[in-house]
Design brief:
- With 261 residues, the chain is an alpha/beta fold.
- Helix content is 38%, strand content 23%.
- Helix 2 packs across helix 8.
Length: 261
């Protein structure tokens, strides 16, 4: 009788704890963001946070759905992209303070050449079509000596800022998620690491060239201004910036993703 009473009491306590858990719904790209969030889910559960991860394959809906209060926060973007998105869409998403988690070094990939020296005159080069990542691609192309920008440090540069293009490269702006799929159709594609990893590409092994660890494009947690400092989101950020997460990133991605803290 006593054992049954204890078992019943334990069940009640578990149900009560579950009912008291606060749900936090976060949008993420599948790789590596959702994987990192899955890693911290048990820690957050122990702290009373039921982390719900919603995976997206694009860079638009995660922000729109946070703005529309369908989601609490997102983890997929860097500050330059967030700033450009807010300007373009009239949204008001903000970065959670001190929430930078990792850098995904941007890389150039090709199935037609094995070195930049082989890039032909008039080659087709695909880059992301969103403003911040398009500029990021142009800056990286300049660092490879393939073109010259009016201001090499301008993270909002566009094709209009190209002042020299000695190989007459044909720059094609495409949706970032589609870039791995067009590798057979272009001579070179500059691809965000999350999409490269999802397509089975290794930035360390497969990229012809890649950004260094001093990239300013650290991926962070973003939310609305009215909940950016909520206890649940602060717990999420604290969980994402622990030594355990740093070790997880280093051991799982082997340099394709670099901790930013």
């Amino acid at each position: 009788m006593l054992m049954r009473l204890c078992a019943a009491l334990s069940a009640v306590l578990i149900l009560t704890a579950s009912a008291q858990a606060e749900t936090l719904t976060v949008a993420a790209s599948a790789v590596p963001h959702a994987e990192i969030l899955e890693f911290v889910r048990p820690q957050l559960k122990a702290e009373g946070i039921d982390l719900q991860i919603k995976v997206f394959t694009d860079y638009v809906q995660p922000n729109l759905q946070v703005e529309e209060r369908q989601l609490d926060a997102n983890f997929f973007q860097h500050q330059p992209y967030l700033d450009a998105f807010n300007r373009e869409h009239g949204t008001h998403i903000v970065a959670v303070p001190n929430s930078a988690v990792h850098i995904e070094p941007f890389g150039g990939y090709s199935r037609k050449i094995k070195s930049i020296a082989e890039l032909r005159d008039g080659a087709n080069v695909a880059v992301p079509n969103d403003p911040s990542n398009s500029a990021r691609a142009l800056i990286l192309l300049q660092k490879q000596g393939l073109l010259t920008l009016r201001d090499p440090s301008n993270i909002t540069a566009t094709a209009h800022d190209v002042v020299s293009n000695p190989k007459h490269l044909r720059i094609r702006e495409l949706e970032a998620a589609t870039l791995p799929r067009v590798l057979d159709d272009v001579d070179l594609a500059l691809i965000n690491t999350n999409y490269a990893l999802a397509a089975g590409l290794s930035p360390v092994r497969d990229a012809l060239f890649i950004e260094g660890p001093n990239s300013p494009y650290a991926n962070l947690v973003a939310a609305r201004a009215d909940n950016v400092n909520s206890p649940a989101i602060r717990k999420l950020v604290a969980a994402l910036r622990t030594p355990a997460v740093k070790a997880f990133i280093e051991n799982k991605y082997h340099g394709a993703v670099i901790p930013a803290f």
